[in-house]
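Reply to dn_fold:

You asked what the input looked like. This is it:
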Amino acid sequence: MKRAKLTAVRGRWLVRIVLGSAVLGVGEIPSLAEPIFVSRLAGQQPGSSSQLDQQSERDRLVSSAVDYLRKVQGEDGSFSSQAGPGVTGLVVGGLLSVGLQPDDSMVAKGIAYLLKTRRENGGLYAEGSRHANYETCLAMMALSKANESGLYDEILKGAQGFVKKEQWDEGEGIKSEDPAFGGAGYGSKSRPDLSNTAFFIEALRSTGVPQEDPAIARALAFVNRCQNLESPLNDTPFASKLNDGGFYYTPAAGGDSMAGKDEATGGLRSYASMTYAGLKSMLYAGVGREDYRVKAALDFLSKNYSVSSNPGMGAAGLYYYLHTMAKALAVFGEEEFPTEGGLRRWRVEILKQLRDTQSVDGSWRNPEVRWMEGDPVLVTGYVLLTLSHLGTK
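and this is what came back:
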């Protein structure tokens, strides 16, 4: 596609996004207490033969994934407990997102396991864990999906207080001009990063914390500094070096990108999974779709579109990437994503990618094992969260 045509396509798409805010308000997110779609397994009837194929394929993937997870759940209700309760939180959240109910035996056992990790300080994490914030955030997102009756209100309120205390801010002696300010890490002693900050924002929003909350405002300040974009809101030395609108892992402690450093400029390279995490976080924090930061992120992603790799990282983190991509684009509500190759039906393409990479036992596993994606339980949890956003429109 010629550059002028691509620009026009992107322009029309962005106009639709801005106008679409009347349907999905700025900062409003789909309810994380319910699945994005209701499966035909729960009685939905598709409206056309093409929808039937897509719906049936998704239902098949969900059903086989659920069957796999039933076989590998621990007696104590955990999933991959050797890695701590974080995987269990992620998997339980995934199961609830695709339509399983809290009283399902597998889900109920998983919830019971998570509740046993509750600490006096309100956190939900393994004893002695170095990942207390990460584990608590994932447990919060899972419990919020099972909290229609308010059963876990007190527990979630305590967890909110805990993760807010874990945030890097004045409580840790961090001033607002520090690149670490507002960020969240795996635990209170670990460097803040965009991935954990994205989970932090989503956990707070999913449990009812409004986008105007000071903790979310502080987190947004950190997110702004993770973007390769010259901006009045980004005072890091990296902002202007690449200026491509993408996001990287962290500006704290000298800065770091999992995609490495650009030798020519000294900039920290952007990559797609962090850019979707940044985009999603901005939306959850109330940044408007017409905002220049959002548009810059979209421009980077349109130039780096893929469902078979994590652009900038190759195969590493592919399933984390797909679930973050699906969440971010679902908030936008646009069915077609503009790329240099034309408009792409991202829901359909992700679904095909998941169909083609599923193992015969119903699980998924990344041959590139970085970031624990060699664990089929974790990856299958990511996939369920992805599938929950692939509803037929």
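Residues 3-387 form a domain with the Glycosyltransferase fold (CATH 1.50.10.20).
Hope that clears it up.
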